[in-house]
Write a structure and sequence with these properties.
Layout lengths: L2 H20 L5 E7 L3 E13 L6 E3 L6 E5 L2 E7 L4 E6 L2 E5 L5 E5 L2 E3 L5 H17 L3 H21 L1
Parallel strand pairs: 1-8
Antiparallel strand pairs: 1-2, 2-3, 2-5, 4-7, 5-6, 6-9, 7-8
Helix pairs in contact: 2-3
Length: about 160
């Protein structure tokens, strides 16, 4: 047996032991909650796709532990029966734990079907006007955040 093949087997065995010792599983317990509603509470799901400031990414069972900041956008949940649910989030945090549990805690969240594209465009227009007329750094920062969220809602609602 070649050295490379023995090394690969050794690394493979070590990797397997490391995964087992971390408590990785083939299931993923998922929680998605916001101040207005708990959408999922420790429910087993197949996959979750999340928007983050470091880039959008998908989470599957056995995902490496991660902490990330949500950016305005759509969280897509792939349930075990194959259905997809989409929820718009304004901001918040994503935590992937060593035991494959995942928590998405959003400041605000709404099911995609509840979004109104026309109302979102109106909010975007108003926010853009506020940004253009902002006279202080604080007002500019608040208006810029409102524009970013409104743009994401418009994109999600269309």
């Amino acid at each position: 047996m070649s050295f490379a093949l023995r090394g690969a087997r050794l690394l493979s065995a070590r990797g397997l032991r490391a995964m087992q010792s971390r408590g990785y599983s083939d299931e993923m317990s998922f929680t998605l909650a916001a101040a207005n509603k708990v959408f999922y509470d420790n429910v087993s799901v197949r996959q979750v796709d999340v928007p983050s400031f470091s880039g959008a990414f998908g989470i599957l069972p056995k995902h490496v532990p991660t902490l990330a900041v949500l950016k305005p956008g759509v969280v897509t949940v792939y349930e075990n029966d194959g259905t997809q649910k989409k929820v718009f989030v304004s901001s918040g945090t994503i935590t992937v734990n060593e035991d494959s549990s995942v928590q998405v805690l959003a400041e605000e969240a709404q099911p995609l079907e509840n979004l109104d594209a026309n109302a979102a465009r109106e909010v975007l227009s108003k926010s853009q006007s506020e940004l253009a007329s902002a006279s202080t750094d604080k007002a500019r920062a608040e208006a810029a955040i409102a524009v970013e969220v409104a743009e994401a809602i418009v994109k999600a609602a269309e």
